[in-house]
Specification:
alpha/beta, seven-stranded parallel beta sheet, binds 6-phosphogluconic acid
Length: about 240
């Protein structure tokens, strides 16, 4: 019974679209509307985005949307600890595909700095993140086939700290065993400190992972489960 009521509650937050482009267009419209309202109500707005391949059409569409971008701060849910011009850098992706066109006026807050390791650079990242008013207006998460979100990977020693609901840190250094590069990731606490929390996924495989994550079980197995258990995640999906 509890599984079915959990599923029903989750279904109310599911936004299904015909294909990835329709999904990206609708998501860009929703996010733009939130950012516009935030600027109108509070003078500033904030947007947290993810790396990976899924957000590309969303970034493209959002970048061409007229908004008071000069009042919008943009940062990442996670970053690989590589220079900002490295092919695997999420910042590079965001600078090339989101912070262009109309969105070129947004203020970008980087999750990487000159420190040799994310452990050494973490405090500076924390200070950079503190320049963005919280709660974040919109957080758009991605998810891997292993159930990771941001850089909160299963089987990493840092996962317990990353999922600590009482953490006072907004970000933490992560050394994934199953993915390249040391990382900087937002903590679950920071991710949940948001007005709108979106999970943007495509494909049947990720839908199945999402369904598994709705089942009761440890977040250490599928870290996205910890976000879903908050009951606040909107799932935006297309085949
Ligand atoms: C990263 C991401 C990560 C990503 C998922 C999904 O930098 O690795 O932020 O959490 O969102 O791995 O990636 P895809 O969209 O490429 O499947």
């Amino acid at each position: 019974m509890s599984t079915s009521s959990t599923s029903n509650a989750a279904a109310e937050r599911e936004h299904r679209h015909a294909d990835p482009q329709a999904l990206a267009d609708a998501l860009a419209e929703r996010v733009a509307s939130d950012l516009r309202s935030a600027v109108a109500e509070r003078g500033t707005a904030s947007l947290v985005v993810s790396g990976g391949s899924t957000p590309r059409p969303f970034f493209d569409r959002l970048s061409r949307t007229e908004l008071p971008w000069q009042h919008v701060a943009v940062t990442l849910a996670d970053e690989r600890w590589v220079p900002a011009d490295h092919p695997d850098s999420n910042e590079r992706l965001v600078r090339k595909t989101l912070l262009v066109e109309a969105a070129a006026d947004a203020r970008f807050v980087s999750l990487v700095n000159d420190a040799a390791t994310p452990e050494a650079g973490r405090d500076a990242c924390e200070r950079a993140l503190a320049t963005i008013p919280r709660p974040f207006d919109v957080v758009v998460l991605g998810m891997g086939g292993d159930g990771h979100t941001a850089s909160l990977f299963p089987e990493t020693t840092e996962l317990t700290a990353g999922l600590d609901p009482f953490s006072s840190d907004a970000c933490l250094a992560v050394n994934p065993k199953t993915a390249p590069h040391a990382r900087m990731s937002l903590t679950l606490r920071a991710i949940l400190d948001s007005r709108r929390l979106i999970l943007h996924i495509t494909g049947d495989g990720k839908w199945d992972v999402y369904q598994r994550a709705l089942e009761p079980g440890p977040a250490s197995e599928l870290p996205i489960r910890a976000a879903l258990q908050s009951g606040r995640v909107e799932v935006w999906w297309a085949p």
